[in-house]
Specification:
Helix content: 25-40%
Largest sheet: 9 strands, antiparallel
Protein name: Heterokaryon incompatibility domain-containing protein
InterPro entries: HetReg/Transcr_Mod
Radius of gyration: 21 Å
Organism: Xylaria arbuscula
């Protein structure tokens, strides 16, 4: 159901409820029982807010995961919907962290398969009892966001290299101690900016040579150097140059290979955490002092914003070294404490 809703997000409908009701017959839920769950039964007399709220909650509980929350990829109206409720009629502004690839079935047919991460280490979602507009999810807090870079836009992608240089410099200053060399830090930035995106269905960004990223950064540096004006700080250029090791690749490199993987960076911010010194890529609306969490049932780490005793759901994020259950293993060893996050 979640995959179907995601693929239909950009469809238009004059009736907001039809963003969901029109797809029910295509979903597996329609074939499992002669009676549809109440949340999926078409009722155009119910307020749109209630329809979207109940469908979001139903999918979370029935699927036992939080994939439906990855559809929150827009600037939310928290006066209209609780932060965890998907506005199925909202305009999508950025891509999700996971991607889709063609997968062969035993019968010879091919289907679209979602390639997800596993930040929660396979643990199913745990929903605690709460009021209609509150969603209480169990998980644990990993760290606090202490800095964010500028929002990256699709219109700026052709000249995005300068923002990548800024991200590399900020990472070196803030989390450099976590990495032993410039090369290991650069690989972390390379993978993070692309959210380890997969263009071919086989090779992720992690599998690519770092030489492609170096070539991309050098192109950006040379462009900045050529555009230098008296107002540009020469010290800034020298700082960038000192970060970029001399490129001596063992294989041919192509800056365009990295450039092609950058779509996922659109309308997102690079962010850095405080104590644990993680680097990540998150929603454009995230800000300093938001918290980084692992919520059980989530494929990715999640960003939440404390509001009194409650939290607002900000969105999914990519965090280098936290996408495959690493934090869950630390939690199992007693490094983190489980708590219930009440989302409103």
């Amino acid at each position: 159901m979640t995959t179907l809703l995601n693929k239909a997000r950009r469809f238009k409908a004059s009736e907001p409820r039809d963003h969901v009701y029109s797809l029910i017959g295509l979903a597996g839920e329609a074939n499992k029982s002669s009676v549809l769950p109440t949340a999926l039964q078409a009722n155009y007399k119910r307020p749109v807010q209630d329809v979207f709220r109940d469908i979001t909650r139903y999918i979370i509980i029935s699927s036992r995961n939080l994939s439906i929350l990855t559809l929150i990829r827009y600037n939310p109206d928290w006066n209209k919907y609780p932060s965890w409720v998907v506005d199925f009629a909202g305009d999508v502004l950025w891509e999700r962290i996971s991607h889709f690839a063609w997968s062969a079935r035993a019968n010879g047919w091919h289907c679209v398969k979602e390639m997800t991460n596993d930040a929660a280490g396979g643990l199913p979602v745990e929903v605690q009892h709460s009021s209609d507009d509150i969603l209480a999810l169990k998980g644990f807090r990993v760290d606090t966001i202490n800095a964010t870079c500028a929002v990256m836009s699709s219109s700026a992608l052709p000249s995005f290299g300068s923002q990548a240089l800024i991200a590399l410099k900020e990472a070196w200053q803030r989390v450099g101690a976590r990495y032993t060399t410039r090369e290991t830090l650069a690989r972390a930035v390379m993978v993070t900016l692309s959210a380890d995106w997969n263009l071919t269905g086989q090779e992720r960004m992690t599998d690519q040579s770092i030489g492609h990223f170096w070539a991309y950064l050098w192109e950006a540096y040379n462009r900045l150097h050529d555009e230098t004006t008296p107002s540009r700080d020469q010290a800034e250029l020298e700082e960038y140059a000192s970060l970029l090791a001399k490129l001596e690749p063992d294989i041919p490199v192509d800056a365009n290979i990295y450039r092609l993987h950058l779509d996922t960076a659109c309308n997102r911010r690079v962010f850095f955490t405080a104590d644990k010194a993680y680097i990540g890529l998150g929603p454009s609306i995230m800000q300093k002092n938001d918290i980084l969490c692992i919520l059980f049932g989530g494929a990715t780490p999640m960003v939440l914003r404390p509001v009194g005793d409650l939290y607002r759901f900000i969105g999914e994020c990519y965090v280098y070294d936290l996408m495959s259950g690493e934090a869950v293993r630390d939690w199992q060893e007693g490094h983190y404490t489980t708590e219930a996050f009440c989302l409103r």
